[in-house]
Design goal:
Length: 133
């Protein structure tokens, strides 16, 4: 960071993490900026989370439900359909009682909600499915 005059990060997918590239370098420099790609993602999510065009189908993937649970909860009332793919689908399948074998699942992991209460990720996935019905 000591050789840097300007720092721009475009990694929207990791913007929620407290890592060197997201918070460390900007802290050392005293400033940081988001790039064009991150700006486009923020604009898109603002539209979708504000007043999305209908019908709206959200396709969410990745591995960790814990990284996306707040987004899913916020999107749910605004969308018509939700498609969950990637490894995170196994957490939702487990929440429904399916045998997922050795597939990746965040079972045993907890998430602290906005009220400071810790909740099991599989239980949260089940509650989200119940809301979606």
């Amino acid at each position: 960071a000591s050789y840097t005059d300007l720092y721009v990060c475009d990694a929207f997918g990791t913007a929620h993490r407290d890592s060197a590239s997201m918070t460390g370098v900007p802290k050392v420099l005293g400033h940081g900026a988001s790039g064009l790609l991150m700006g486009n993602e923020i604009d898109y999510f603002s539209k979708v989370l504000g007043s999305p065009p209908k019908p709206m189908i959200a396709v969410i993937g990745g591995a960790k439900v814990s990284d996306k649970i707040q987004l899913l909860e916020n999107m749910l009332p605004r969308i018509d359909k939700l498609v969950i793919g990637g490894a995170m689908a196994y957490t939702f399948l487990k929440a429904q009682g399916f045998n997922i074998g050795k597939s990746f699942c965040e079972a045993g992991q907890s998430f602290t909600d906005k009220y400071g209460e810790k909740k099991d990720i599989v239980d949260l996935a089940g509650a989200l499915l119940a809301k979606a019905k």
